[in-house]
């Protein structure tokens, strides 16, 4: 019961619009800043997996990764130029979620086109792993649960559906493994998101205390005068 209550409170906090302007601003600030590190990690991963994963899959992954990185970087630049007001935070979060859904859906569609025949356990596992963490997940999407779900679901759903459609013990086991990995990824994301929310809450409390301190200082100055 205690764990269920904690889960409900966390879900309520995730769906809340509390600190929305700060979270959206951080979401766009983090977007694109990790592109160089992602590309280096992608190159190392491709080199390590060469010969175990099909060349077509690796090439498709790099094309998708490059296009997705360019889109994230472009959105961050547009946000910095526009500097939208706080009341437009919800609208800009929806823009980011739409872009995340398009990016995730593009990779999910590519997997469906490439994986028209049953594939090995190693190839599918590594494919989902690199495609889910390639965009810096979960830290870069920690400010927005909606953006996280918009990115992950279009990748996960086609893979699991494709494996279950193929049938067989190995493909079914692989689908279950993907769901387990998605659960672990979700747990990591929740930890990052809750840590961010606590940090924002502490910052908000410090701001209120500073305002009270300034008011008390003015009152004391007036009394001494």
Structure description:
The longest helix has 56 residues. The protein has 8 helices and no strands. The chain has 225 residues and is mainly alpha-helical.
Distance between the termini: 58 Å
Low-confidence stretches: none
Residue-averaged pLDDT, rounded? 76
Strand content: under 5%
From the spread of the alpha carbons, the general shape counts as elongated
Task: Compute the number of helices.
Answer: 8
Structural class: mainly alpha
> Helicity range of the residues?
over 70%
Tell me the major beta sheet.
none
- Give helix and strand order, one letter per element, not per position: HHHHHHHH
DSSP E strands, number: 0
Q: If you compute it from the alpha carbons, what radius of gyration comes out, rounded to the nearest whole angstrom?
A: 22 Å
SSE blueprint and pairings:
Elements: H1 2-15, H2 20-30, H3 35-49, H4 55-82, H5 89-114, H6 121-133, H7 145-166, H8 169-224
Helix pairs in contact: 2-4, 2-5, 3-4, 4-5, 5-7, 6-7, 6-8, 7-8
Key attributes of the depicted protein:
single chain; mainly alpha; 225 residues
Summarize it.
By secondary structure, the chain is mainly alpha-helical. It contains 8 helices and no strands.
């Amino acid at each position: 019961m205690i764990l269920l209550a904690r889960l409900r409170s966390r879900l309520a906090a995730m769906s809340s619009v509390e600190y929305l302007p700060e979270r959206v601003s951080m979401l766009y600030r983090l977007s694109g800043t990790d592109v160089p590190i992602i590309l280096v990690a992608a190159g190392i991963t491709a080199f390590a997996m060469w010969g175990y994963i099909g060349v077509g899959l690796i090439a498709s992954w790099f094309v998708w990764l490059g296009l997705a990185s360019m889109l994230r970087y472009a959105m961050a630049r547009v946000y910095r130029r526009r500097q939208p007001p706080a009341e437009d935070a919800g609208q800009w979060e929806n823009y980011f979620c739409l872009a995340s859904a398009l990016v995730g859906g593009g990779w999910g569609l590519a997997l469906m086109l490439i994986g028209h025949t049953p594939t090995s356990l190693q190839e599918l596992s590594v494919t989902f792993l690199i495609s889910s963490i390639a965009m810096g997940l979960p830290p870069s999407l920690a400010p927005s649960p909606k953006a996280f779900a918009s990115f992950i679901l279009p990748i996960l759903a086609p893979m699991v559906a494709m494996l279950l459609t193929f049938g067989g013990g190995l493909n079914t086991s692989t689908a279950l493994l993907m769901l387990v990995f998605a659960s672990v990824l979700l747990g990591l994301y929740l930890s990052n998101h809750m840590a961010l929310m606590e940090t924002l809450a502490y910052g908000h409390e410090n701001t209120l205390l500073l305002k009270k301190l300034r008011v008390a200082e003015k009152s004391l100055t007036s009394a001494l005068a």
